[in-house]
Amino acid sequence: MSGESNSEELAEELISACRTSIGDTLRSITLFTAEDYDQLYIRSDLEQDAELDRFVANERLGFTSQQTYGDSELGEYEFTIRAFEYGYVTRVIVGDRGVYVTTDEMHMDEFDELATAVRGVLRENTGAA
Questions:
Q1: Which of 113, 1, 118, 5 is closest to 62 using CA atoms?
Q2: What contacts 24+ positions apart, CB below 8 Å, involve 73-78?
Q3: Which domain of life is it from (predicted)?
Q4: For 32-89, what is each residue's pLDDT tens digit?
Q5: Angle, vertex CA 105, rays to CA 114 and CA 8, nearest 5
Q6: Structural domains counted in the chain
Q7: What is the CATH classification number for the domain harbouring 110?
Q8: Whole-angstrom Cα distance, residue 37 to residue 67?
């Protein structure tokens, strides 16, 4: 992603926010835009060279979903959770950037804390409201 020092600072902030909110449950963090992505963190006990293209392509669909649900009576989009046999994927999008975080199994209330932390970092770094 562009702007190396800004990217490093954003990566550090996202890692810190995620680690603070969910601790060792954190598996990985990937920052993405419509054109690019960067895996910011992966826990040492996991496969370090996993193919991310399919995951990123799927999570990019969230940019379209935001537009679809934009004027919904449900309110503003906050985050998406996908449940799997051994963990979860949580996606947060703010403006033109998104982050998806993979985790081990967690309690449902921890997802709100995680998404709030990620959304706060993205808003701070994108100027989005």
A1: 118
A2: 78/115, 78/119
A3: Archaea
A4: 999 999 999 999 999 888 789 999 999 999 888 777 777 778 888 889 999 999 999 9
A5: 40
A6: 1
A7: 3.30.450.30
A8: 21
